[in-house]
Amino acid sequence: MNFLQGVVGDGRVTIPALGDAVIETSVALPPKGRPVLVGLRPQHLSIVEGPSDIVLDIRERLGGVSYDYLNTANGERLIVESRNDEMIDDGTPVQVRFAAQDALFFDPETEQRLR
């Protein structure tokens, strides 16, 4: 599971590492302005080439599956599981895509999942 720092807004969470991506959620969140951890499973993420502060560090090909290791501008790292043969060169800026319902939220102090 990838864990990224998030900041609570009004019924949403902003993720600075993903270019301030905003996730709308009905999860019971802490008060506005508080931090949360956002959990994203590697198999729920995808990448495409495009202008971004996120860079593909290395792609590890393991037959029918590949693992992409990404570096974000703020130093957080991501792992993305891919099952395609698309060629993206190491060092290429990429955009990360995922469905909002796949994001999980955790209290950064207790590490308990928020529901």
Summarize the structure.
By secondary structure, the protein is an all-beta fold.
Explain how this protein is built:
- The structure is a single chain.
- With 115 residues, the protein is mainly β.
- It has one domain (2-109): OB fold (Dihydrolipoamide Acetyltransferase, E2P).
- 0% of the residues lie in helices and 48% in strands.
- It contains no helices and eleven strands.
- The protein has strands spanning 2-8, 12-15, 21-24, 35-40, 46-49, 55-62, 65-71, 77-82, 94-97, 104-106, 113-114.
- The strands form three sheets. A six-stranded antiparallel β-sheet has the order 3-2-1-4-10-11, with no helix packed on it.
- It starts with a strand and ends with a strand.
- The mean pLDDT is 96.
SSE order and pairing:
Blueprint lengths: L1 E7 L3 E4 L5 E4 L10 E6 L5 E4 L5 E8 L2 E7 L5 E6 L11 E4 L6 E3 L6 E2 L1
Antiparallel strand pairs: 1-2, 1-4, 2-3, 4-10, 5-9, 6-7, 7-8, 10-11
Which CATH class?
Mainly Beta
Cα Rg: 14 Å
What's the pLDDT, averaged over the residues? 96
Detail the poorly predicted runs. none
Give helix % range: under 10%
Number of strands: 11
Q: What's the domain count?
A: 1
| Alpha-beta classification | mainly beta
What share of the residues does DSSP label as strand, in percent? over 45%
Tell me the CATH architecture.
Beta Barrel
CATH-defined superfamily: Nucleic acid-binding proteins
Question: How are the strands ordered across the major sheet?
Answer: 3-2-1-4-10-11
**Number of H- or I-type helical stretches:** 0
Give helix and strand order, one letter per element, not per position: EEEEEEEEEEE
Query: What is the CATH third-level topology name?
Result: OB fold (Dihydrolipoamide Acetyltransferase, E2P)
Give the overall shape, derived from the CA principal axes: elongated
Q: Cα distance, first to last residue? A: 17 Å
Sheet having the most strands: 6 strands, antiparallel
